[in-house]
Predict the structure.
Amino acid sequence: MKVLTVLLLLIPPGIKKGGSIMSKKKKIKNEFNAVPPYAQIEEKLAYSKASEGLKAHTKWLYVAFRLKYKGNNARNIVFLESEAKKIMSLSTFRADCRKLIERGFIDLIKRGGFYNQPHIFGLSNRWRKYGTKDFIKIDVNKIFPKIFKRKFKKGHKFMGNQFKKKEHL
């Protein structure tokens, strides 16, 4: 089985080609204790039916989920919105998460949102059966109901008295 590997090398600024990374005075420490940080992605996944038609930022979001996988937390990956803001807009992040859940790449284990609790995601293998009758479809609208996406119009009871219609004499 062939495996595609995405390597992210941490090279400090100011180091030229052929230069030494470690100096005698200062030792650069990897704060995450991952040497080297990488995400393995199977070739089957990269060229599967489920990944066809996905936008580039959706694929990179999946790589970001794989980078958060540390070997023992496949069903306990926390991706905060503050972390998402660093790589894409929040609306794009939410849309891409929905698409990854629909295609079977990730699952939503625990929905957060109330009292600033984070969503807990898990890596999934449902993508292997995407496009077949055995594929388990998850309705994302049931996970994220319309109630949380409703926008109130001016004069709605929830908005208070600030937008009352003025009567003319």
About this structure: The chain has five helices and five strands. The chain has a mean pLDDT of 77. Residues 43-152 form a domain with the Arc Repressor Mutant, subunit A fold (CATH 1.10.10).
